[in-house]
Design goal:
358 residues, Rossmann fold, 3-stranded parallel beta sheet, 13 helices, 5 strands, 7% strand
Length: 358
């Protein structure tokens, strides 16, 4: 049994596809850092999911996995308070993926708008692997393996959370005898193995990229990364497109630039002043506002740059791997307990097992 805690549990994570950017920060990572003191936090490195579209790039996936941990640590994730979990060394997740696949039909998977969007954005057409579809089931196992109450995610992941909630209810009803009319918050107290988790969306649900049109995305080359230098940040902020021609022309305060103003300038009075002047065409140019936004972003990122420097180079990578090993070892205690509870409910509890990392 794991050590009991009165703190509600959180599970979330990232697929290692490259460095984290400001969209990840305001959409989810900022939330994770803030919640560490009050919640029992597990942050998953979904490196197996990366193979669903990049199976021919194992070295890149490994490097990206290390980079994401550097980003997390730089952002303020504290391995003493939170578990950093490596998916491929948590075998209970793979087993539960198989069990949960029996509870979802192909049609339900394909109705998930997140899957449809990824197929379009990544240009997969009809050439995606079966594993690409299975990853959506795997995400459910990622979450439910830790029986969390909340899942901090970006807005685009809410359809996945809803599918996870459906599977939690279905499992508890089918194998634990929970009445389908039970309130979501009461599934465990009614005898279920799995709570019905809730998604927590960050303070900015969808941060537009510096192209001023599309959501911030590595594949669209419109990102400001958490690891960017001050010079890179200023250069990218200057690229934010507004379409405004003159500082005396009334501006649209719902444009991309003002999303950055509201997201990253902490002084509310200054934000209100900039909005008033911009909307009135009060001789304030886009360049001036971009300079303030760049300064605010760099002020926010500077402590992250300093923390990140501790984990660079070969010795820093060794430290990162030690952190991953320790967190994964602790997380396996939770995931193995969950798997045993699920197997008991499914009448598969022939004998227990013990798992240890080398």
């Amino acid at each position: 049994m794991i050590t009991p805690t009165d703190k509600p549990r959180i599970l979330t994570g990232d697929t290692p596809t490259g460095r984290l950017h400001l969209g990840h920060w305001v959409g989810s990572v900022e939330n994770r850092v803030r919640l560490q003191d009050d919640y029992d936090c597990y942050f998953l490195l979904a490196n197996m999911h990366a193979f669903t579209t990049r199976s021919e790039q194992p070295a890149d996936i490994r490097a990206d996995t290390i980079e994401i941990v550097r980003d997390w640590l730089a952002a303020g994730i504290d391995p003493a308070r939170s578990c950093i979990v490596l998916q491929t060394e948590t075998p209970a997740i793979a087993e539960m993926t198989w069990f949960f696949a029996m509870l979802l039909g192909y049609g339900r998977l394909m109705r998930n708008p997140t899957i449809k969007t990824e197929i379009e954005v990544k240009g997969l057409g009809d050439k995606y692997s079966f594993g690409f579809l299975m990853y959506a089931v795997g995400q459910i196992a990622d979450i439910l393996a830790f029986r969390p109450r909340y899942v901090p995610v970006g807005e685009d992941q809410i359809p996945h959370i809803e599918m996870c909630r459906e599977v939690a209810r279905r499992f508890d009803q089918l194998y634990c005898g929970v009445d389908p009319h039970t309130e979501d918050a009461d599934y465990v107290s009614a005898g279920g193995v799995f709570p019905v988790p809730e998604g927590l969306v960050g303070r900015v649900a969808r941060l537009v990229g510096v192209d001023g049109v599309n959501k911030m995305s590595k594949s669209l080359n419109n990102c400001i990364y958490l690891s960017d230098t001050p010079k890179e940040v200023k250069k990218k902020v200057n690229r934010i497109f507004t379409g405004r021609q003159s500082p005396t022309e009334p501006g649209d305060i719902t444009n991309a630039l003002f999303q950055y103003v509201e997201a990253f300038i902490p002084d509310e009075e200054r934000v209100a002043e900039l909005k008033r002047k911009y909307a009135a065409g009060d001789d304030i140019g886009d360049g001036h506002i971009k300079a303030e936004v760049g300064e605010a972003i760099n002020a926010m990122l500077e402590p992250m740059r300093q923390r990140r420097s501790e984990y660079e180079g070969p010795s820093g990578e060794a430290t990162v791997i030690d952190i991953i090993r320790d967190g994964t070892s602790r997380a396996n205690a939770v995931a193995e307990e969950t798997l045993w509870m699920a197997k008991e409910a499914m009448k598969l509890d022939f004998f227990p097992r013990k798992l240890a990392l080398g």
